[in-house]
Design a protein that fits this description.
- InterPro entries: Acyl_CoA_acyltransferase, GNAT_dom, Hisat_C.
- This is N-acetyltransferase domain-containing protein.
- Pfam families: Acetyltransf_1, Hisat_C.
- There is one protein chain.
- The protein is built from eleven helices and 16 strands.
- With 320 residues, it is α+β, with helices and mostly antiparallel strands.
- The strands form two sheets. Strands 1, 2, 3, 4, 5, 6, 7, 8, 11, 12, 13, 14, 15 and 16 form a 14-stranded mixed beta sheet that branches. It has a two-stranded antiparallel ribbon with strand order 9-10.
- The longest helix has 16 residues.
- The two termini are 31 Å apart.
């Protein structure tokens, strides 16, 4: 069984298909990644069975050194790469480049229809990491943090500031399918690179990706169910390792209406307030024109506070 998992050797490394029993070793090389806000401890086991996903490990002398994954989307034409990590004592030695090359080679064998590679990074990435890619777009990130017991007072302050006019509708599966068939959605919502980035995964808003969205158990809100000018979505809060155990909550906003962005933030927080315990890290991804107004809207006298100044999410692409 072990031999069947090995897919090749290069540069002193052996490459393997990841298995559920590799979880502890993967966590060992992931210590403090993303400042304790790493999603992989929560996602690893679902990745093992996700359709059209490849997860590859690099080992040297039997010891795990690196991991990367690729998810094939967009009717089989795009691979979204994510999850890259290298054990601390091997960083800066070119290991990332080696495993990236192997993941891409393996995906080419399994999915010859793939033509495009896409990924997301934050703006901390240096110019040398971005040089090989086309930057399709940038979104601003608002980062706030607080304890569950302070969320009610925070929401009360936010609701008191809301414009009474706007309304948002919860989209069901049929409405979402119709929305993804709307050829003008990208331009109307000003989607960066005509991609809908949900929880850091850039996918084209097309019907074939509906199954991917369904796996995520997402909640979608829009200003109207047909031809919306504003759309938002949240991923259910999930555990992250920070400080021995916290929650992360991601909200993605599409559109440029400041008042609807405020309403969307309140609406998504209200829908999960009963599921939040302890410390929650809230990340809101939005059109760059919204950031200043959203930052000012979230300023309050409560203990829910911003923990990082302006930063950006970059959507990158290159030919595969």
């Amino acid at each position: 069984m072990m031999e069947l998992r090995s897919i090749g050797e290069s540069d002193g490394f052996t490459f393997w298909l990841a298995q559920p029993e590799d979880y502890d070793a993967v966590m060992d090389i992931s210590d403090n990644i993303y400042g304790g806000n790493d999603y992989l401890p929560h996602r690893y086991h679902s990745w093992m069975t996700e359709p059209n996903r490849v997860v590859i490990l690099a080992k040297r002398e039997g010891k795990l050194v690196a991991l990367e994954s690729g998810l094939v989307v967009d009717e089989g034409h795009t691979v979204v790469v994510e999850g890259l990590r290298v054990c601390p004592n091997e960083r800066g030695k070119g290991v990332a480049r080696i495993i990236q090359r192997w993941v891409q080679q393996y995906i080419r064998q399994l999915y010859p229809s793939v033509r495009v590679l896409r990924l997301t990074r934050n703006n901390d990435s240096g110019p040398e990491k971005l040089a090989k890619f086309t930057v399709l777009g940038k979104r601003a990130i608002l980062s706030i943090c607080g304890k569950a017991e302070n969320l009610d007072s925070f929401l009360s302050i936010l609701k008191a500031k809301l414009d009474p006019e706007p309304m948002l509708t919860v989209l069901d599966e049929v409405q979402l399918r119709g929305l993804l068939l709307d050829s003008e959605l990208g331009s109307r919502l000003q989607l960066p690179g005509d991609a809908m980035i949900v929880d850091w995964q850039p996918l084209q808003p097309i019907e074939s990706n509906l199954e991917v969205f369904q796996r995520r158990n997402l909640t979608w809100l829009a200003d109207r169910s047909v031809s919306p000018t504003f759309l938002s979505v949240h991923t259910p809060p999930y555990p992250v390792p920070y400080n021995g155990g916290s929650l992360r909550f991601n909200i993605d906003l599409f559109g440029t209406s400041q008042s609807l962005a405020h309403l969307a933030l309140v609406s998504h927080l209200e829908r999960v307030r009963g599921k939040i315990q302890g410390v929650v890290w809230i990340f809101v991804y939005m059109h760059r024109s919204l950031w200043k107004g959203m930052r000012e809207y979230c300023e309050s006298l409560t203990d829910v506070v911003s923990f990082r100044d302006y930063w950006e999410q970059l959507i990158l692409e290159r030919p595969f």
